[in-house]
């Protein structure tokens, strides 16, 4: 029973990414907290919004632009070794442009579109910030400063930028390129993929030979115990094996898509997390069944 529940949960887990998503619109739910800070209780936030005040050096708004930026795991597939990314890695606008960003989170985790280096007299801490827990959408507006400058845009959630969610926004001609922009500029610390799968297998075989050549461990012999195996036991084992192979063939495409671009260590960590989720679900289910049966034990047991 536990094995069948575990298999069912694995199938549901791996099939989840292909299900349709309902996107929540947070634009009409935000409360104004002052100083361009908008926020709601459902995981949406805009910081540094400015749709009216011109930055110093801007006599008027040069042009009005709107862009839609998507964020999610699927956009990192084209960048080996990356886990998250924006669908666009570079943006270019004229100085003094009034820019509205529609930020769409395609994942089921929290993502940000954060822009640094803006004038602090107008933007608190020199930052414009969109944040949303997805799948959802949120929008915000700012007026870009004058001059030629390149601004960093990234997600500041722990490890999201390091895993690829990083871009650059050039005002005018910009003042150069930023490092480690996926698909655009070289990394500060280049990735190393020297440890290929054949090399890992060779290392495992060498370790196995080393263990086999180690001195044997002396143990006290015990009398063998015959454990009868009925034909039904064999049939159950073979049946579970066949079901496991069939499920493996079904989920293989989802596994290949989910693990694409991950390093071996990231794949192992992800597998352990999946196993932990399945065990937590099974234990929780068994606990609820026991609690449901326990209050009725007096009715089930016959009276003496």
What does this structure look like?
By secondary structure, the chain is α+β, with helices and mostly antiparallel strands. The chain has a domain at 22-171: Immunoglobulin-like, CATH 2.60.40. It contains 5 helices and 13 strands. It has helices spanning 2-15, 197-212, 231-259, 264-293, 297-300, and strands at 24-25, 31-32, 38-39, 44-47, 64-72, 85-86, 90-93, 98-105, 110-115, 128-133, 136-143, 149-154, 166-171. The strands form 2 sheets. It has an 8-stranded mixed sheet, with no helix packed on it. The protein has a 5-stranded mixed sheet with strand order 1-11-8-5-6, with no helix packed on it. Strand 2 (31-32) and strand 3 (38-39) form a beta hairpin. Helix 1 (2-15) runs parallel beside helix 3 (231-259) and helix 1 packs across helix 4 (264-293). The radius of gyration is 28 Å and the shape is elongated. It starts with a helix and ends with a helix. The model is unreliable at 11-19 (pLDDT under 50).
Spell out the key features of this protein.
Immunoglobulin-like; alpha+beta; 31% helix; 5-stranded mixed beta sheet; 304 residues
Produce a short descriptive summary.
The protein is of the alpha+beta class. Helices cover 31% and strands 21% of the residues. The longest helix is centred in the C-terminal third of the chain and has 30 residues, at 264-293.
> Which fold does the CATH topology of the domain at 22-171 refer to?
Immunoglobulin-like
Per CATH, the class of the domain at 22-171 reads: Mainly Beta
N-end to C-end Cα span: 32 Å
Low-confidence stretches: 11-19
